[in-house]
Amino acid sequence: MVSPTSQRTSMSHSLSEDKTCSLSSLSQRPVDLAQRSGNLMAQASPPEMSQEFSNSRASPEHRTRIPAQDHDDNMDKLAKMLGDALNATSELFYSNTSSNTPKPSPHKRDLSDGNISYRAATAMLASTNTNTTPTVSRPYVAAVAGIPSNPPTSSPFYTGLNGVNLEMDQKLVQMLWMSIVAAVLVVFAVRLAQLFVSYIRNIHCMTTERPSQQNYFSVDRSRLWAWLKKHLIYAPLGKKRHNRELQLSGAVNYGTLPSRVHTLILVLYAATNIVYCLILDWHNPQKGALYAELRGRSGILATVNLIPLVVLAQRNNIAIPILRVSFDTFNLFHRWIGRLVAVLSLIHFFAWLAAYKLAKGDQATIRIFKNAPFLDYGLLGLVAIVILPLHSLSPIRHAFYETFLHLHQSLAFLSLLGIYVHLDIMHLPAYPSILTAVLLFLGERVFRIGRLVYLNYSRTGGMTTAFVEALPGEACRVTFQLPRQITIRPGSHVYAYLPCVSLWMSHPFSVAWTNGESEPPIAGHDLLPQRPSTPNSLERQSVMNLVKQAPTSVSLVMVARTGMTKQLYDKARAAPDGQLKLRGFLEGPYAGHDSLVSYGTVVMFAGGGGITHHLIQIRHLLAGARAQTVATRRIVLVWSIRDVECMEWVKPWMNEILHMEGRREVLMIRVHVSKPTRRIDQSKSKSKTTMQIIQGRCDPGAVLDEILPNRIGATMVSVCGPGALADEVRAAVRSRIRLGNLELNEESFTW
């Protein structure tokens, strides 16, 4: 009988000899290895171990008489297989380890070092109903590699995906996307219904001779739709204030309030994300696991929300023409979703920090970020994401707009870069989301540059040139001569670049005028009255054809405020004759999807430079009314200005409108002068059918009370101007929504 001590010595000696065997000798002598392993089994199988197996199973007599006798024989064979597998695995591992790799420390549970006896390993295997199907022994591999044998439970919850509920994360992300798609489909369905109604109304009314033929459309036939417009769609958040800025002083304002429908959408979306973060396994006894689940949930939600965040900030957004939603509305959603992403990112960080502190205790240190690119880039993205909404607050944004824009774009790039590398290093499940956001961000920038080059450069026409003229009332009339011909729809706006004033910065302006038709009122049909051809008429026709083929010129009115507009005005006023010729560029046109052609009555309110939004629309509607391609039969323009000299801003274009054929029967203009420098003699104003100049502020409610009783068909009320005027018009429309079929269109640039 071999003593236990000499038995362990023999087994250790045999294992030590086997460890020196190279991988090549192992592959060349498989038979010898099996024989040596068999000898090891014989040496390490004393009678007492056999007795342990026999006592826990059947007696030797039973093993020779019943089929179950093979059980212990199988266990002996399995023990032999285990010995072979352990030794072979040990040799394979150490033979493939480079010479500079340190050997496992004594505390590691390496079977080949004798820390776990063969007797104990065999006894544990024999005492369990272990499946003997050959499988990869992951706990053993982990033990040899020097890592814990059960990573999901023993690894710290602040590393990798330990404790993260990936299955639930994916389900909630899918639910979030489904809610976004559902909201988009609802808006799309509403827009389709509105377009269909507008099309039918225009087809029916555009050839009517008498105003009474549009009476059917003068009343809203749906009580529900009228109620929704008054209490939800057109309603401000509170009683009246919406676009009027919240001001602490004349120089500091806190931005505007969202409308009621916008607030409802934003609250539901934010609440959905917060609720998804709270769907955790609260019954888990391990706090670290709870922190890990919250870390994973908030992280993937923050990353997924980057996609709509990037899309909503893009000028070249395909959703704008499809959904007929203004960029101003998308910009509002962009700001609030950006704040939501910042909150989710902070939750992600503090959940990781709590798990790290819980695992390390007093050993937790900031040095964990040293030489850790995964953590460093994540911290870079977090800092940029958090700074973005802080520096985007309205007082900072309005006081230092150009500085804000530079910093905002730089931080946006850094945040995407940091998050991208953070997720790419570990190949985390949120990587496709950040990749999509980055591609959308870069793709839109490339498309914008390509569009800018195409619009402002051509081989035959050269490059765009800007002509600047200083005007009374501290404004400039800027005309961009493009090198090519383009079509600009009514109600469009562009972004103007003037490098000599603001380098590469761009600013949005409504298109005040173009040298050609903004949109053909009737395809293949000239709007000039058909008369017998004469030499003079043929000459005029050829001149008009040349104008139609000429490159497009786009005129804007830039009222001097601060920054670029103020610098441009001062520079133009200091120039000889108050005129400048500069190198400039245009980007656009954008928007122009709000069509007014199906409304019999159109009322336009403008404040200051907001008149530029309406001029091309008036020209288009007058031309269409004469050609009987639109339903519009009455247009009322109400313009509020500080002084009469502001009328010089649009004088040449207004003269063209006043000389259009059929204008007297359709258009009426009312100019309200709030702060005239000299008394206005209203008796010298032109007739009521042409233009009225009225001293005093405009009362939108009184104007509508005068127009609505004599309205023709459906009525559109459009407003472009300061926030206070827009809020007054909105309140007047809402209070009279049941008096007729009233619609409201508001054009604004809130930044």
From TrEMBL:
Residue ranges spanning the membrane: these are 176-200, 261-282, 333-353, 374-393, 413-442
Entry GO CC: plasma membrane
Alphabetized UniProt keyword annotations: Electron transport, Ion transport, Membrane, Oxidoreductase, Transmembrane, Transmembrane helix, Transport
Q: Where's the FAD-binding FR-type domain?
A: 458-596
Native species: Phialophora macrospora
Specify whether Transport is a keyword of the entry: yes
Q: Which family does it belong to?
A: Belongs to the ferric reductase (FRE) family.
- Composition bias of kind Polar residues appears in 1-14
Q: Which GO terms describe its biological process?
A: copper ion import; intracellular iron ion homeostasis; iron ion transport
Give the Basic and acidic residues compositional bias ranges. Answer: 59-70
User: What's the protein here called?
Assistant: FAD-binding FR-type domain-containing protein
The membrane topology noted for this protein in its Swiss-Prot or TrEMBL record is:
Multi-pass membrane protein
Q: Which InterPro entries match?
A: FAD-bd_8, FAD-bd_FR_type, Fe3_Rdtase_TM_dom, Fe_red_NAD-bd_6, Ferric/Cupric_Reductase, FNR_nucleotide-bd
> Per its UniProt record, what PROSITE patterns does this chain match?
FAD_FR
The protein's matches in Pfam families, at most eight in alphabetical order, are given as: FAD_binding_8, Ferric_reduct, NAD_binding_6
Keyword Ion transport belongs to the record: yes
- Which region ranges are annotated with the description Disordered? 1-70, 94-113
